[in-house]
Amino acid sequence: MFPGIDGFHWTVGHVIFLSLFFAVVATILATLVFAVLRTKRDFRTNRAIELCWKSDFAELPESDRRCRHELAGRVVSRACDNAFNCRRCGKYAQFAVLPATGLTRDLGLHYPEDRLYHRGHTWVKPAEDGTFTVGLDELADHLVGSPDSIELPKAGCEIELNQTAWRMKKNGREIDVRAPIEGTIVAVGGPEQGWYLKVRPRLDPKDPVTLRHLLRGPEVHGWVLREMERLQMQLRAPNSPAALADGGVLLSGLMDAVPDADWDSVLADTFLTM
Amino acid sequence: MASGALTDSSLTDRKWIARGEERTSLPRFLLWLTPWAALLAVGVYAAGLCLDFGLNQTNMDNRFAFGLWIFLDLGVIALGAGAFFTGFLVYILKRAELKPILNTAVVVGFICYSGAVAILMIDVGQPLRAWFTFWHPNTHSMLTEVTFCISCYLLVLCLEYIPILLRNRQLRKLPSFLVFEHQLHKLVPVLAGVGTLLSFFHQGSLGGLYGVLRGRPFAFRDGVFIWPSTFFLFILSAIATGPSFLMLVAATVEKVTRRRLMPADLFRRLGFISGLLLAIYVAAKSIDTLIWLNFTSPSAGFAPWQYYTHKPFGTPILFTEIVLFGLLPAFLLTYRKTATRRAWLLSAAALACAGVLLNRFVLTVQTLAVPTLAFDEFLQYTPSWQEVASFSGVIAYGVIVYSLSYRYLPLFTPAKGESNHVSGN
């Protein structure tokens, strides 16, 4: 058939058929190569991290993707379509000036106002020296209780916003905690210290945009209230009707107290993991 | 507490299943897979016998060279047409409402085509020399076109399957997989276009293969330029029944899992597309049959009734193919009162799929069975156990791959998943 094969001679049929065939094969292979090259480029330009988070964000249930302004009662209903990136949200300024109308009541959890909160249940507290202290918020703390083991990054390591900051193990389950801020780790703590990481931010710590994506003030209350409601629904006894308790405070060490719950879903929804 | 945690973490595959998705327990799932795995094992053994000892393991011979395997190939390739056709509708014609069935269409297509290629490999034999067909192609043969197009299209289906595979809950945790999935998914419209081109030609060439058989006037047809009418009829029948088969697959999964996976409206939409195309196919097939009865066959020296004197291939088979499995489902799928009732809709889809299978059976088996020469006799062929086992093995393979895909991959969530794919270059 091809040159080098006995008796081969080109005909119009050969040219048409083989041209079409090889054009198709070339298109298929080029598609594959193109995808590989673009993947490499995304890693080279650090776009891969953003893509991964956006992809994970899109997989979150609708209830986890509510806009901070809805949580604060500034708007009636709004789903975030910006992967919680309020730094680049075109609507942020428009809604932020509206008065918060959400009701406040005591949730039995302590969320100090000098801290800012990430939806993955971590907090950030700016320090005088320009570093940020990062810890686990009280709801997550109550949920996990005392972790069986913790895998913290070393000082000097870089962490990326919304990527895994540290890992915990509890009752055989791995819990990935997402980083609330990007930067270099300058110190490592733990549950005993009440904080997990001290981070020197990559962006200017004095620029208000650096921490804009984190929840604060009335947004925190609205968010925690919904998280509590979700938890109550998820931790109710199997086959029991949906009902919300109207009192009481969250137990500490829920993973130990309610071992038969669907912790797979609870942890995924709490820590925004897949 | 410890035992609960142990049960959850080590004796289940929960962490491989997408969050929020309910699946049966792992032991029950394995129990479901066991008989299919056994069937597949028997099929692999039978295929091994055929590859080791040759086609003497089958009941085919030089006179009856096409049998159960070719019927299976033609059947699954027609039913698997839903993959390319859905891709064509979604990506080329921008029918976004069909997205929820897209992933299932890709998996069904992948199963059908990989199964067909596996059976072809056993049928042709000597897989180590498979590359010969690409190095020494007979460019005048419809089968060469079929071989090239099916090989390429299987490659396309593999590339379309990869993004679905990489969205598995654990695999997506690897950033390189997730980003590659994202980039490959963005290029899927290119693959959908290539897949449409390839499918158009190989579906057509499979039909053309019979239409050019001058020595078999039962199958021989006139046509346009180099393409006999069967070329176009095969394309039409495949794209008409592909959506019906997808409906049946989705409905079967819904029944087995007792979950609603697709909106009722999507069933009706698929049914209408299928019914409309089936109506066009029945009209074309009827015209083709009339031309064949009145002109093509007589000009070859055969009175058409001669073909239908050999039982069980009497005229009822022609009536069944065109009216019972063609016209009737076309009506049921498009008529508003029946199309809005699930039972009617699915029954009609089953009839349409039976119709395309009967058509492929008739063209494969009846064509070879009826005598064409004065000294010829009506031939009977019964497949050997090795042929049946290989056939069953492919069915089992399909069930296993689909079951695994349904359990671990997002098959019915693309309406959300499609929007999941972040924008950007």
Report on the structure:
The complex is a heterodimer of chains A (274) and B (425). Chain A is elongated, with a radius of gyration of 25 Å. Chain A has helices at 12-44, 47-59, 68-71, 92-96, 138-144, 218-234, 254-257, 263-271; strands spanning 116-118, 122-126, 132-136, 149-151, 158-159, 164-170, 173-178, 183-190, 195-201. In chain A, the strands form two sheets. A six-stranded antiparallel β-sheet of chain A has the order 1-2-3-9-8-5. In chain A, strands 4-6-7 form a three-stranded antiparallel β-sheet. Chain A has two domains: 1-45; 55-271, OB fold (Dihydrolipoamide Acetyltransferase, E2P). Chain A is an alpha+beta fold and 274 residues long. Chain B is an all-alpha fold and 425 residues long. In chain B, strands 1-2 form a two-stranded antiparallel sheet. Chain B is globular and about 70 Å long. The model of chain B is unreliable at 1-10 and 414-425 (pLDDT under 50). The chains are: A alpha+beta (274), B mainly alpha (425). At the A-B interface, helix 1, helix 2 and helix 8 of A face helix 1, helix 7, helix 8, helix 9 and helix 16 of B.
Task: Summarize the SSE layout with pairings.
The complex is a heterodimer of chains A (274) and B (425).
Chain A: H1 12-44, H2 47-59, H3 68-71, H4 92-96, E1 116-118, E2 122-126, E3 132-136, H5 138-144, E4 149-151, E5 158-159, E6 164-170, E7 173-178, E8 183-190, E9 195-201, H6 218-234, H7 254-257, H8 263-271
Helix pairs in contact in A: 1-2
Chain B: H1 2-10, H2 26-53, H3 68-79, H4 81-92, H5 99-124, H6 132-135, H7 142-165, H8 175-186, H9 188-211, E1 223-224, E2 227-228, H10 229-257, H11 264-299, H12 315-334, H13 336-339, H14 342-369, H15 385-408, H16 414-420
Antiparallel strand pairs in B: 1-2
